[in-house]
Amino acid sequence: MAKKGEKIKEKLIEYFLFALSLASLVFLAGIVVTLFRESLPAFRDIGFFRMIAGRDWYPTYDPPDFGILPLIAGSFLVTLISILISVPLGLAGAVYISELAGKKEKAFLKPALELLSSIPSVVYGFWGMVFLAPFLQKHLELSTGYCALAAGIVLGIMSTPIIASLSEDALNYVPRAFKEASYALGANRWETVTRVIIPSAASGIITSVILGTGRAIGETMVVLMISGGSAILPQSFLEPVRPMTSAIAAEMGEAAFGTPHYHSLFAIALILFGITFVLNLAAEMIAKKFRLKLGASR
Amino acid sequence: MKKIILSAVCSALLAPAAYAGKVVMEGSTTILPIAQKAAEVYMNKTPGSNITVRGGGSGVGISSIIDGTCDIANASRAIKQKELDNAVKKGRELKAHIIAMDGIVVVLHPSNEIQELSKEQVKNIFTGKTKNWKDVGGKDLKIVPVSRDSSSGTFEAFMEYALDKKRVRPDALVQASNQGIVNFVAQTPGAIGYIGIGYLSEKVKAVRYNGAEATKENVLKNKYSLARPLFMYTVPNPKGEVKAFLDFLKSPEGQKLVEEEGFIALKKN
C-alpha cells in the first residue's frame, strides 16, 4: 500500500511540474495573441509598409504620421554600438578568466562579473545621465551628450558581463583532451586558444553574443534616460535617437485606449518581438550547425 | 456583512451630498493631475462620496458629457463650434467652469544672454528654421531644442499656442517630464525648452515671451500669451455631488491643490 501511495505522490508531483512547465508556454501564447490582436488594427488602418518605411513619427498630430523607420533605426544603431563594445570586451574577458587567470584571480573575477550583470538597468541609466552624457558632451564638444553613442556605450557595458560570463562557461566546457592534443602537436598557448578552444566553444560563445544583443535591443530604461528621444534617421552615432523600446515606454501611458497611436505602439512591440524571436532562432540554428561540424558535442 | 451595511448607512448619513452616488469625470490629461488630487482630497473629506477620474483627452470628455456618460468633462480648451452643434442637436446645454490657469514658460541655459524671444522666433526655433543662437541675437552656438513626449498636455498646449500646430523638428530632444526638461536645459548650454510655470527653478533661465514676463500675475492679467484657462464642463445647474466638488475645487483649499500641481490658481491665496 505504502508503495502505491508513493507512486501516486510521485505521479502527482510529475503532473504538477508538467503543468508548471506548460505555464511558460501559455504565457508566451497569451503575449503573442495580445500583440497580434492589438497591433492588427494599426497595420490595417495605417498600412504595414507605410509604417515600416515611414520616416516621420508624429503620432499625436493632426493629421498624424506613424512611420517607425526612425525608431527601428535607433534601436539598431544603439545595439550595434553596444555589440562593438561588449563582444570584444566580453570575449577577451572570458578567454582571460578561463585560460590565463590564476586560481585566485578567477575566484575574484567571475563573481565580480556576475555581480556586474545583476545591477538594475536604472542604475546604469542614472550613471549614464550624471556621468557619461555630460562627459561626452564636454570632451567630444557635442551640443548634447544624450545621443546614440552614450546609450550604446552603457548598453555595451551592461551586456559585457552576460557575454563574458556565458562565454567563459562555454570555454570551460571544452574537453581537456582538446587542449592537451593541441599542445602535443606543438601548438603554443595562443594557437591553442584561438584555433582549438574558441572554435570548439563557438556554439556557446555565439549564444552568449546573441543573448547580449537581445538584452541591448530590448533594454528600455537606459535608452529612455540617455538616448535623447528624437525620432530621426540618425546620420551619425553622435545624434540623438529614439529606439523602439523607449517610444513604447514613453508614450503608452498617455496614448488614449483604442486610438491608432495606441495600436501603433503595439505594432512596434510586435516588430520588436519579431526581431528578438528571429535572433533567438538564428542563435539556435548557428549553434546547432557548429556543434555538428566540430563534433564537440557533449 | 452587517458591519459593512451599518458603516455604509452611517457614512451615507454623515455625508451631506452622498445620495447622488457616483461622479464620473473624464477628459483632458493636462487637468488629470488636478482632478485626481482634488478628487482624492474631496473623497477623504466627504465619506461616502465616489468620484471616478478618467483621462482620454479634452475631446473625449466633451463628447462623453454630450452623450451623458460622464458628469464633468475636463477640457484644456474651450468647446468647439462643432461640439456645440452636436450638443444642441442632442438637446444638451453645457456650462463652462474655469478652474485654473495654465502657463508655459520658455527656458534657456543660465549662461544664455538672450532675454526675450518673440512668438515667431520661438516658433522658428522649434520647427527647425532657426538653428543657431546668433540668428536671434545670441552668440554663435547651435540651438538644442528639447520638447516633451507628444502625448503630454504641456506639449499639446505649446504646439497649439506657440507653434500654431506646426510640427516640432524631428531631431529635437525629448524628455518625459517637466523636471526632465529643467535638468536637461540646466546642463546644456545651447538648450531651449518649455515647462509648466509651476516647475520654474533657478537652475534655468526664463525668457520674456512676446514682450511679457512669464509670471503668474501676467497670466492672470491676460498679459502673457502662452497661457490658457482650464475648464470643467457640466450641465447648466449642477447639483449634489457635482456642485459640491466644483465648489470645493474653486475654494481656497481646492485652489491650493491647483498650485501644488504646478498650475496657476484663479485668485491669489
Q: What does it look like?
A:
The complex is a heterodimer of chains A (298) and B (269). In chain A, 77% of the residues lie in helices and 1% in strands. Chain A has twelve helices and two strands, in the order H-H-E-E-H-H-H-H-H-H-H-H-H-H. Chain A has a two-stranded antiparallel ribbon with strand order 1-2. In chain A, helix 6 packs antiparallel against helix 9 (202-218). Chain B folds into two domains: 7-101 and 229-260, Periplasmic binding protein-like II (D-Maltodextrin-Binding Protein, domain 2, 3-Layer(aba) Sandwich), CATH 3.40.190.10; 102-220, Periplasmic binding protein-like II (D-Maltodextrin-Binding Protein, domain 2, 3-Layer(aba) Sandwich), CATH 3.40.190. In chain B, strand 6, helix 6 and strand 7 form a beta-alpha-beta unit. In chain B, helix 9 (240-250) packs across helix 10. Chain B is built from ten helices and eleven strands.
The succession of helices and strands of chain B, N to C, reads: HEHEHEHEEHEHEHEEEHEHH
Number of strands of chain A: 2
Q: Largest inter-chain interface? A: A-B, 30 and 29 residues
- The CATH topology assignment of chain A is MetI-like fold
Note the main attributes of this structure.
heterodimer; A: 298 residues; mainly alpha; MetI-like fold; two-stranded antiparallel ribbon; 12 helices; B: 269 residues; alpha/beta; D-Maltodextrin-Binding Protein, domain 2; 2 domains; 9-stranded mixed β-sheet; two-stranded parallel sheet; 10 helices; disordered N terminus
Q: Would you spell out the secondary-structure blueprint of this structure?
A:
The complex is a heterodimer of chains A (298) and B (269).
Chain A: H1 2-46, H2 48-53, E1 57-58, E2 65-66, H3 69-100, H4 103-116, H5 121-139, H6 148-172, H7 176-184, H8 189-200, H9 202-218, H10 221-226, H11 244-252, H12 260-294
Helix pairs in contact in A: 1-12, 3-6, 3-9, 4-6, 5-6, 6-9, 7-8, 9-12, 11-12
Chain B: H1 2-14, E1 22-27, H2 32-45, E2 50-56, H3 58-67, E3 72-75, H4 81-89, E4 95-108, E5 116-117, H5 119-127, E6 144-148, H6 153-161, E7 173-175, H7 178-187, E8 191-196, E9 205-206, E10 208-209, H8 216-220, E11 227-234, H9 240-250, H10 252-260
Helix pairs in contact in B: 9-10
